[in-house]
Amino acid sequence: MADEQKNALAPTFNYVSPGPTVDKLLRSESFVTGIRGPLGSGKSTGCVMKLLLKALEQPVQKDHVRRSRFLVVRNTYSELKTTTIKTWHQWIPDTLGHWVSQGPPTHHIRIAGTRAAPGLDMEVIFLALDRPADVKKVLSLEITAAWINEAREIAKEVIDGLTGRVGRFPPVRDGGCVNPQIIMDTNPPEVDHWWYVLAEQDTSTQRNAEMVGSVKRAEAEMRDAGLLGKRQPLFEFFAQPDANSPDAENLPNLPRDYYAKLSAGKSDEWRKVYIRGEYGFVQDGRPVYPEFREYLHVREFELNTRLPIDIGIDFGLTPAATIGQRSFTGIHRVRWEVVTEHMGAKQFADVLKGFLNQYCSQFDIGTITGDPAGSAAAQADDEITCFKILQANGINARPAQTNSTTVRQEAHKQAMARLIDGEAGYQIHPTAVPTLRRGMSGQYRFKRIQVLGDERYHSTPEKNQVSHVCEADQYRMLGTGEGRVVINGPLSARGRTRPAYTLT
């Protein structure tokens, strides 16, 4: 390699891996490879180095230049700018090549080559997924490889979409792409996240078993088609050691008191995730339901077949439903959830109907209550609403009487605050409603407003992976009369209105 190219990419040659786990990432030839670990463990830098090494793997073209195009993804533009791009520029300064900071940020590095010393043409595109136009662009790019930074914040559908975009550059006529990959790093996610399911091969639920099974089938199909080597895995995950252990990685590059200061004042759950590198859940923002307590509101139970069940539905592109029951004594128990992504009202109606037929056929349906916004005309047809689509498919849902966020949230809060015969007035099943449980435990939250020196939060809950099912349960609560309790006082057990229909 020419001296000019060596000088330009000096950080690559000066780089020392922080430990054996990052070494494994750098050597991995799996189609999708990921590393998780504590804060400060060198994960992101390892991914930067892997992109640079991958650029040097590409074929030398007729003009003696290796060409590559990479995509770097983060969940929001603010995180992309303050974290991901900053890490990139620590190793590849913006003075090298042509750096464009907006629309989207792009770094293009060109180094001329000769027959004896091939040159380099490397384009790196940075995208955040909080802008719809950027999400669409991800699915239309032709790239060599992709780096997903903090993958726990990215939906698996994005990873699935990228599998068809990597390996498309350079084109075959110019020598093709060598070993296309999707590279991921993350702090540990929670135990029902897609990363956990695939990395730990967890098949404990039907959803998890289907996800693991689909990857195994895809791996077999790609190997049979010659798209994977005989021993090349489709997915490969690596976990770094506890930052407190003797095997901790990247310690020589950190201040001696880095983790001591980092852990000061933090909860054990926070230390578990960000220092010990274990799967877990850490609140970020102000929870909508600070009243919720796992020891009080999460209980084993079965519903009473002599009583009707109630259903709440939230619409949109990620429709969700919760299914629960109000006991004779007034305890609200949530037994099931139906959570989807990127699904229209018609398809969701089919999914919900199939679920009810499978799990709830022995119950009468008391109320089916949905987001009043579903009464608005659907985009696909000005004459069709979500409620009409549901009714056409045998689900006789009705809009909630109010969409007031205060009333919806207070309906939950008041039930949580009640004690009835020594039991909480609101209970959820420990395993059957994992998304709702995460939301109630703090992921359904008011996002922090970044204001220097001031603790402020948005006035409406953040839209995220748990918000839709939490709001579906709010509508379910309103359908049972809890909205009237908020406004008018307690509702007697006999005062509940029973609709004159059942689901067929």
Comma- or semicolon-separated keywords:
Nucleotidyltransferase, domain 5, disordered C terminus, 504 residues, globular, 8-stranded mixed β-sheet, alpha/beta, 34% helix, 6-stranded mixed β-sheet, 22 strands, Rossmann fold, 18 helices, 2 domains
Structure description:
This protein has helices spanning 3-8, 10-14, 20-27, 43-57, 77-91, 132-138, 156-162, 194-199, 206-224, 258-263, 268-274, 294-297, 345-359, 386-392, 405-417, 434-443, 467-479, 482-488, and strands at 32-36, 65-74, 98-100, 106-111, 119-128, 145-149, 181-186, 235-239, 286-287, 309-314, 320-326, 332-339, 365-370, 377-378, 381-385, 398-399, 419-420, 423-424, 426-428, 445-446, 448-451, 454-457. The longest helix has 19 residues, at 206-224. The chain contains 18 helices and 22 strands. The chain starts with a helix and ends in a 16-residue tail after the last helix.
